[in-house]
Amino acid sequence: MGEQWLKQSLASGVSMLLLLRLKNAPPEDAIQPTLEAWFRVITYKKTWDKELDRARFESAFMYLAQNCDKFPSPKQLLEAMPKREFKELPPPEITPEQQQKFAEGWRKLKEQLRGTYQCINQENS
To answer: If DSSP states are collapsed to H, E and C, what string results for the chain?
Structure first.
């Protein structure tokens, strides 16, 4: 199943919160239904990617463990998640022809600006 990693992340994070004995934590017989409810809420109209999101879930659960006095809701987990980090694309390779075209464009722009500067100076004289 493609979302097994998410279920494991939820189980691990919720287990840590349960061990902290936070107020309003579910009783032992309600842990499994709680995990199922969290999974349904977190996956409702959302897709998660193991590569991009696993560390985010771990960070969010750690944040909740450090900052909550009461057992959190799935909404609090989602709010605590850091933004996704995307790999930066390498800069595009510029061909010698493109470099020449860019240089020509810069040269033309500089000429136009020089002409404008000269016109402004003549008007102010």
So the answer is: CCCHHHHHHHHHHHHHHHHCCCECCCCHHHHHHHHHHHHHHHHCCCCCCHHHHHHHHHHHHHHHHHHCCECCCHHHHHHHCCCCCCCCCCCCCCCHHHHHHHHHHHHHHHHHHHHHHHHHHHHHC
